[in-house]
Specification:
single chain, mainly alpha, 0% strand
């Protein structure tokens, strides 16, 4: 009886955390410049890190929660570093870069151990809305304030990653072709 009550309480707590995180995200994307400052003061980035915290064994490994936390971190820091323009993708009011707020958020994330939590997700194979791994990379890039203008030449490491990905795709294609050839040979015999 007691175990059932604990499971129910855990489920309710998880639901409340999830819904609260979604509410905070909406406040962030629709909020103006002063709202962003309030979110930093309230340690919004730390709350998002807690959604991701599975590396140390604390927290639930729910793909949606991990994805949401990583996405929220990435988008929040990106809007602070680069500012925000209103368009179809960004419905909230525009505001300029807020570098000091971005740095404070980075410090908060670092103090909470968020860098390690995000790095731990770089090997996560969970897939939701694309891949958790890619969202972790985006979050890490925002933490490092790493921006590549798409018009600039690609860095050397990017080409190495692409070569590895191309090789993996080529290996898969060769394996598929070999399987097709084996099937044809079996049918001919």
């Amino acid at each position: 009886m007691n175990n059932h009550t604990n499971e129910e309480e855990d489920r309710k707590a998880s639901l409340i955390r999830s819904e609260s995180g979604q509410c905070l995200y909406r406040i962030q994307i629709y909020g103006d410049e002063s709202t962003q400052s309030e979110l930093v003061s309230s340690e919004y980035a730390v709350i998002s890190v807690l959604q991701v915290s599975t590396a140390g064994g604390d927290g639930e490994q729910e793909d949606f929660g991990i994805f949401s936390g990583l996405y929220n971190i990435s988008e929040f820091l990106k809007s602070l570093y680069q500012g925000r323009q209103t368009d179809n993708i960004n419905p909230g009011p525009p505001f300029p870069q807020q570098i000091s707020l971005a740095r404070r958020s980075n410090e908060q994330i670092e103090e909470e151990g968020g860098n390690e939590e995000i790095e731990a997700q770089l090997i996560n194979k969970g897939e939701i809305f694309g891949q958790i791994k890619q969202t972790a990379k985006n979050s890490k890039c925002q933490l490092l304030n790493y921006f590549i203008d798409q018009r600039n030449p690609r860095p050397n490491w990017y080409e190495d990653d692409q070569d590895n990905e191309d090789q993996d795709n080529e290996d898969q294609d060769n394996e598929d072709l070999n399987n097709e050839n084996l099937n044809e040979e079996e049918q001919n015999q």
